[in-house]
Design goal:
The complex is a heterotrimer of chains A (about 100), B (about 325) and C (about 100). By secondary structure, chain B is mainly α. Chain B has 13 helices and no strands. In chain C, helix 1 runs antiparallel to helix 2 and helix 2 runs antiparallel to helix 3. The chains are: A mainly alpha (about 100), B mainly alpha (about 325), C mainly alpha (about 100).
Chain lengths: ~100, ~325, ~100
C-alpha cells in the first residue's frame, strides 16, 4: 500500500464520520464543526491524489485548489459561527435582542 | 518507501479519523474545540508528508491558530448549553450511519483504484516560464487559474460582510483590569509577525509561501492584538477597514480587466510587467485577506453577555 | 550515516523523550497548575533538543538561525500563555491540589 492511498482512505473515513456528525449531532456548534471537517476529508483525498507520481513530483493544481479551499472553509465556518452567535443571542434575550 | 515511513503514515492516517470521532462524540464543547485545533496541527503534518508544504503552512496558521481562536471565542459568546437543537431520533441515526458507511467505503474503494498518476504537473512545468513566477503552485494560483483566485477573493469579502452583518458588534473591552502579560507579548510579537508575513509573501514567488500564508499570519497577529486589547476589533464604520477589505478585490479586477482595453484577454498580463503585476496583486491580496480573516473575529462579548460567564474574564 | 546524522538523531530522540514525559504528566497530574508545569517545561526543553538536532543538520547558517528563532519565540509564547491560563483558573476559584 502506498502512502497516498493510506491518506486517501483516511480522508474517506473523515468524510463519512463528519457526514454522520452533521446529521446526528445535537449541539449546533458540533454540526458546524462537522461541516468544516467534511472539507478536511475532501482536501486529504485531493492532495493524496496529487501525490501519486513516484519520484514525488506532486501535481500543483490540486494543491492550489486545496489552498483556496482551506481559506474558504475557514470563512464559511466563521460565517456559520456568526449566525450561531446571533441565534444564541436571540434565544437568550427576552427583548428584541437588537444591536447593542 | 521504507517500513518506518509506512508505519508513520499509517499512524498519522489513523490518528486523524480517531480525532474526528472524538471531536464529534465528546460531551464537552470546549474539548471538541481543543481537539479540533489538535486535528489542524496533525493534518499540517499530513500535508507535509504528502509533499504539500504550502498547504501545511496555511493549515498550521489558519486551521490550527485562527479557527481555534474563532471557535473558542464563539463558545464564550454562545455558552456551552445554548444552541442545542432537538436530539436526533435513534432511527434517523441508524439510517444515517448505514448511509455514511456506504459512502465512506465506496469512496475509499473508488479512490484507491485510481492508481494512474494522471496529473498536470508536467504541463505546468512546461509552461512555467509563461507564468513569470518560479514556483508551480503560485503560478497556478495567480497565472494559470487566476480567475479562480479572483472569484475566491470575492467569496471571502462576501463572507466577511455576511459575518459582520450577523454578529452583534462587540463593545471595546470592559473596565476590569487585564493582566499585563498579553499586552506586552502582543507588542513584542507584532513586528515579528509583520516580518514573517512579509517574508512568506516575498518567498511565494520561488518557494512555498505567498499571499494566503502571509495573510493568515497577519490575521493571527491581529487577533492577538485584539485579544490583548491593544487594538479594537475592526469596525465596519471605519473607512480604512472598508478600503482594506475592498482593496485586494478591486486591484485584482483592475489588473485583470486592464488587458481588455488593449484588445487582449481577461487576466492576460502584459509580459513585460507581468512579474511586478503579480507581486502587486499578491500584496493587495495579503492586505485584504488578513482584514477579512480579522473581521471574522467578533471580539469579546458585551458586558451583558459576559455577565453570564463571569469566570471567563481574564 | 555521518556523525552529524547520528548526533542529530540522538538529539531528536532525547527531545521526543521529553515530549512523551510531558504528555504523561498531562494525563496523570491532579490539577490544572501541575498540568501547566507538565505542558510548558518539557515542551520548551524538548523543542530545544529537536531544534538543535535540526540546526546542526541544516545545510546553511540561515536555516539554523531561523529554526533557533522559532524555539525562542516558543519560549516567550509558552511563558505568557501559561501565566494567562493559570490566572484565568485562579480567577475561577480553582485552588491548587493538595494531598488530603
Amino acid at each position: 500500500m502506498s502512502a497516498w492511498s493510506i491518506y486517501a482512505c483516511s480522508g474517506a473515513a473523515i468524510i463519512a464520520l463528519s457526514l454522520y456528525g452533521v446529521f446526528a449531532c445535537a449541539p449546533l456548534l458540533k454540526r458546524i464543526l462537522a461541516a468544516n471537517l467534511i472539507g478536511t476529508g475532501v482536501f486529504l483525498i485531493l492532495v493524496a491524489l496529487a501525490d501519486r507520481s513516484a519520484p514525488a513530483q506532486p501535481d500543483p493544481v490540486p494543491h492550489a485548489l486545496v489552498l483556496t479551499g482551506v481559506v474558504i472553509s475557514v470563512s464559511a465556518t466563521a460565517l456559520a459561527l456568526a449566525i450561531a452567535i446571533r441565534l444564541a443571542d436571540r434565544r437568550s434575550s427576552d427583548d428584541e435582542g437588537g444591536w447593542p | 518507501m521504507t517500513a518506518l515511513d509506512l508505519v508513520f503514515d499509517v499512524v498519522l492516517a489513523t490518528v486523524m479519523p480517531v480525532l474526528v470521532w472524538r471531536i464529534l462524540a465528546s460531551k464537552d464543547l470546549a474539548s471538541s474545540v481543543v481537539l479540533f485545533v489538535a486535528l489542524g496541527l496533525v493534518s499540517a503534518l499530513a500535508w507535509a508528508r504528502l509533499h504539500a508544504p504550502d498547504i501545511a503552512l496555511v493549515e498550521a496558521a489558519v486551521g490550527a491558530g485562527l479557527t481555534g481562536a474563532l471557535l473558542m471565542n464563539a463558545l464564550s459568546w454562545i455558552g456551552a448549553e445554548a444552541g442545542v437543537t432537538e436530539p436526533v431520533s435513534r432511527a434517523t441515526r441508524v439510517g444515517v450511519g448505514i448511509l455514511v458507511t456506504a459512502v465512506g467505503v465506496g469512496l475509499a474503494v473508488a479512490v484507491i483504484h485510481l492508481t494512474q498518476p494522471v496529473g498536470l504537473a508536467h504541463e505546468v512545468d512546461a509552461r512555467l516560464a509563461d507564468a513569470h513566477v518560479d514556483y508551480p503552485v503560485t503560478a497556478v494560483l495567480l497565472s494559470f487559474r487566476g480567475y479562480d483566485t479572483l472569484l475566491e477573493i470575492a467569496v471571502l469579502v462576501t463572507a466577511a460582510l455576511g459575518a459582520r452583518l450577523y454578529a452583534p458588534g462587540s463593545v471595546p473591552g470592559g473596565d476590569d483590569p487585564l493582566s499585563p502579560h498579553p499586552r506586552v507579548l502582543a507588542r513584542v510579537l507584532t513586528p515579528i509577525v509583520v516580518l514573517v508575513a512579509g517574508y512568506l509573501l516575498w518567498r511565494g514567488a520561488s518557494a512555498p509561501g505567498g499571499a494566503f500564508q502571509a495573510a493568515a499570519v497577519l490575521a493571527g497577529g491581529g487577533i492577538l492584538l485584539v485579544l490583548a486589547r491593544v487594538l479594537r476589533p475592526p469596525r465596519m464604520s471605519s473607512i480604512a477597514v472598508r478600503a482594506a477589505l475592498v482593496a485586494g478585490l478591486a486591484w485584482f479586477i483592475a489588473v485583470a480587466a486592464l488587458p481588455l482595453a488593449t484588445g487582449a484577454q481577461l487576466l492576460e498580463y502584459p509580459s513585460a510587467s507581468a512579474k511586478q503585476l503579480i507581486i502587486s496583486i499578491e500584496v493587495a491580496l495579503t492586505l485584504s485577506i488578513s482584514i477579512v480573516l480579522l473581521m471574522f473575529f467578533p471580539g469579546e462579548p458585551a458586558p451583558g453577555e459576559a455577565a453570564r460567564h463571569p469566570e471567563d474574564r481574564w | 550515516m555521518t556523525v552529524i546524522d547520528v548526533l542529530a538523531t540522538a538529539l531528536w530522540v532525547v527531545g521526543a523523550v521529553f515530549f512523551v514525559a510531558g504528555t504523561v504528566g498531562l494525563l496523570r497530574f491532579p490539577d490544572v497548575y501541575t498540568r501547566l508545569h507538565a505542558l510548558t517545561k518539557p515542551d520548551n526543553v524538548g523543542l530545544g533538543f529537536i531544534v538543535s538536532g535540526l540546526a546542526i543538520q541544516s545545510s546553511e547558517l540561515a536555516v539554523a538561525l531561523k529554526v533557533i528563532a522559532v524555539w525562542v519565540l516558543l519560549l516567550v509564547v509558552n511563558a505568557v500563555s501559561c501565566q494567562v491560563i493559570a490566572r484565568a483558573t485562579w480567577n475561577r476559584g480553582i485552588r491548587p491540589w493538595s494531598r488530603r
